[in-house]
Amino acid sequence: FHVYQTEADCGRLLPSQSLLVLNSLPVCSPLPGVSSATPTEEMNGAGNLMDFLDEPFPDVGTYEDFHTIDWLREKSRDTDRHRKITSKSKESFWELIKSLLDAWSGWVVMLLIGLLSGTLAGVIDLAVDWMTDLKEGVCLSAFWYSHEQCCWTSNETTFDDRDKCPQWQKWAELMTGHAEGAGAYVLNYFLYVLWALLFSFLAVSLVRVFAPYACGSGIPEIKTILSGFIIRGYLGKWTLLIKTVTLVLAVSSGLSLGKEGPLVHVACCCGNLFCSLFSKYSKNEGKRREVLSAAAAAGVSVAFGAPIGGVLFSLEEVSYYFPLKTLWRSFFAALVAAFTLRSINPFGNSRLVLFYVEYHTPWYMAELVPFILLGVFGGLWGTLFIRANIAWCRRRKTTQLGKYPVLEVIAVTGITAVLAFPNPYTRRSTSELISELFNDCGALESSQLCDYINNPNMSRPVDDIPDRPAGPGVYNALWQLALALVFKIVITIFTFGMKIPSGLFIPSMAVGAIAGRIVGIAVEQMAYHHHDWIIFKNWCRPGADCVTPGLYAMVGAAACLGGVTRMTVSLVVIMFELTGGLEYIVPLMAAAVTSKWVADAFGKEGIYESHIQLNGYPYLDVRDEFTHRTLATDVMRPRRNDPPLAVLTQDTTTVEDVEALIKDTDYNGFPVVVSRESERLIGFVQRRDLTLAIKTARQKQDGVVSSSVVYFTEDAPQLPASNPQPLKLRRILNLSPFTVTDHTPMETVVDIFRKLGLRQCLVTRSGRLLGIITKKDVLRHMAQMMNQDPESIMFN
């Protein structure tokens, strides 16, 4: 309860505070033993943290590594800070300016995140382009030019051989003077593999030596961090630097991985970096996570050139707490990031992304059947990939394989390069492959996929080329694509999760795009040769442009990406922003929903949730349903045969007792009770705050020794005159810990933990303390109920 100190406060009841009513009259003067702090300070345990100090001592209210934050505590601390700034702003003009700067700091952080992540994405794109081409040859006029840039400036390119120009030479031609022949082919093959091995070796070595956290996609860990878990160093400066450099090396090595997932990690590192410049964010873990949610949106915005898709991705896939304010800021960060990337123009096509396409033909209702079949394929591929990849990663964790990460990367790169080089569709970078598969066959295309047999009498506008019979080049391309499909499906399973930065978006899209293009060509040829069939009769006249195989590739890519990640809304928006195809939303939606349904039939978790589970991160998924009929008393600790709960009493514990308790146990906090006999709950104190308070008191306050009594009440206990000076620690006590009764259903408890982001919750009966439930206990109980190993939740 709270008692108001001044007559002015009398009768003014503030929200979430109660008046103590005695004999129906409000008490408007302090009572003995009742706190005379302000109601807010009392509620939150905030304010100055020790009576003997003018300033709060540093680090109090912070968290240890691998611990969960207390969202409620962070929220109330921010409310206190805001209230203090607002009241001060009325005192002077300078304080008003400071309060305005504080209000604008969020937008400034978003601007900085957008600028830096956009710049880094542009640099990564340019570097990847150059280094991928470096495996095949070099530009003689300027070695830092990629193949395409090198031939841009040349006047000697012909229409048929537009990729060949005298300034660009393959390695064999440069070394031996022969561009063709078996010897040149073998030399080019050998150097391609050598460059790939060099790039991947550099990448894995840099990750191992300088930043072990820079490996993988980063999205499972970011989801866990955004749910309130602390992983120190995961978003640090070294991780940012090494991830950016090694991402270029890993993608350039030709491994089956993408840069999109790691770009989200890079953007979140930028967000964390700029949070440290503003105390509003650096000192409050809850506020910091709002910035990181927006940074994730900026990451997807630059990865796909899809600002709106980025905001929806952050909302649907990674964020745990996403208030409306964060939605606007995410939108702004994504906008600035996309604008910065557009200014750099890494692809030279004035687009934000490599595979921008424009189709000229509408789709027809009958085509929904193959689109839905592609959705089914995407769902099945997603399930197969998740199960196989998780099994392989578990094997890596539990066997000797995990001890040799460098060797594993070298082996997988070697196999990938040796198998990829002979097939032109796997030799090139995956983004270029997707770009070619998405493309519509215009009159100016020189790709094998566009080798159709032309009708010599055809005289039509360039845009609207009718369906034509496939030529030998198309059939040849289909064989190569079928081999590329099998290769990509198998090799991606072993690549994702190695100790290098590796994204999953691009390989998943490549698998879907290959399957989609094959289906598209099949439907196109059926429509051409059998236009009198009933299904084609209504919409496909002879000589018309009916089927666009590139659209099938796009739908297949969306289906496979949806099957692996289980995204729906954000996926469709990302895909249509990627391709500029607004009228193709319905096929994309049909494929995305089908792939999710099919994949969910085999298991609810997407790839990121599966990796969170594999690594044992304490992540309470909002989408999981808890349907078991257990009670809080079944889950709380101590259990029946356990030692009693470690508690502190309000005014009889000594400093020595507290230090012994901290030394002998590893609990994160201790309930405070009136006495061990009554077990009446007073509040809860964090272990870290307690340690820091006693350490600071010994240094700064005279007379505090091991036999000093620690008291959490407002007034000091009555002690003999010979006793040393007592130590008052009421200010670090949380007087409103979250409590439930022992008969609360676990379904409700799980919901409370999810929605309020609790760290722990105390169990009482009629005000008496019975036990405690932590987030880890909830996760273990849920694992047990699903017949999984409860000990797999390994972090605090």
TrEMBL record:
Q: What is the lineage of its organism?
A: Eukaryota, Metazoa, Chordata, Craniata, Vertebrata
Q: What PANTHER family would the database entry show?
A: CHLORIDE CHANNEL PROTEIN, H(+)_CL(-) EXCHANGE TRANSPORTER 4
**A single Gene Ontology molecular function, please?**
voltage-gated chloride channel activity
Q: Which GO terms describe its cellular component?
A: early endosome; endosome membrane; Golgi apparatus; plasma membrane; synaptic vesicle
Protein name, as recorded: Chloride channel protein
**Start and end residues of each CBS domain:** 636-700, 733-791
Asked if the keyword Amino-acid biosynthesis belongs to this entry, the reply reads no
Record has Ion transport as a keyword: yes
Which PROSITE patterns does the record match to this protein? CBS
Q: Which domain of life is it from?
A: Eukaryota
Q: Which UniProt keywords apply?
A: Antiport, ATP-binding, CBS domain, Chloride, Endosome, Ion transport, Membrane, Nucleotide-binding, Repeat, Transmembrane, Transmembrane helix, Transport
Q: What is its main location?
A: membrane
Q: Which family is it part of?
A: Belongs to the chloride channel (TC 2.A.49) family.
TM spans (from-to):
104-128, 189-211, 231-251, 263-279, 291-315, 364-386, 406-425, 477-497, 504-523, 551-576
Question: How does the protein associate with the membrane?
Answer: Multi-pass membrane protein
Which Pfam family, an example, fits this chain? Answer: CBS
